[in-house]
């Protein structure tokens, strides 16, 4: 009897490579929101450049096990010191957080070529580095403001929007979600802020969202260290459970895991059968 194992193992390999094909391309948490860069540039092949490389590597590695982290890379001279951090959105699972941070880190070379400081915000994560310390420093500068088209003066819808924003403002913790009817909201601080700094930042973002976005169907207010967003009527989707593509990728992943489990069971079964028949055949 020909051994059944090699074809099964190559099927397993095939399925595994399929799963790695499906996984990275689907989550919408990787789409780009904004990038900001410092005016000053570092010289190519400088110690600063290699420190930046090791900083970004540390950030990507850390994102496989933590939703937030900060690092300081000490140079041999004071001007080579570099500070950096990342923050994943509160609802992102660990593999998606790592994928998001890796994706934004890979965009620095294009968005901020050789600049001594830079920040990139994707839907699911924020990454920033600089040669002056910004860690633990509250920054309420508006970096991205987007208001959707107006829905006209709809008292009821605006009342729900204000209630959702109000409940997020009154909540505690660095990641806040709210919802009422067709209105959804999300707000988050970067993890280096203290509780009171975070509250201060979110109050500003939420206040600006109300005043600047008026009766818009959705609003995005990103400040230096926090953001608040809302949407009505599915104008925007924020949380990963609402992203249809993400749901699909999780389904695909579940199917692949199921197939893998089936194949593993089959291998165990066939090995068992082979042992029995192999033993009898002697
Ligand atoms: C940051 O880097 C720029 C460009 O190399 C340099 O001009 C500036 O002095 C640096 N700032 C600090 C605090 O080292």
TrEMBL record:
Residues annotated as signal peptide: 1-27
GO terms for cellular component: plasma membrane; plasmodesma
Main location as per UniProt: other
This protein's UniProt keywords: Cell junction, Cell membrane, Disulfide bond, Host-virus interaction, Membrane, Repeat, Signal, Transmembrane, Transmembrane helix, Transport
Residue intervals of the Gnk2-homologous domain: 30-134, 135-235
Superkingdom: Eukaryota
PROSITE patterns reported for this sequence: GNK2
Transmembrane domains' residue ranges: 253-273
Topological category with respect to the lipid bilayer: Single-pass type I membrane protein
Compartments, as annotated in UniProt: Cell junction, Plasmodesma; Cell membrane
Similarity field: Belongs to the cysteine-rich repeat secretory protein family. Plasmodesmata-located proteins (PDLD) subfamily.
Subunit structure: (Microbial infection) Interacts with Grapevine fanleaf virus (GFLV) 2B-MP.
Name of the featured protein: Cysteine-rich repeat secretory protein like
Species of provenance: Actinidia chinensis var. chinensis (Chinese soft-hair kiwi)
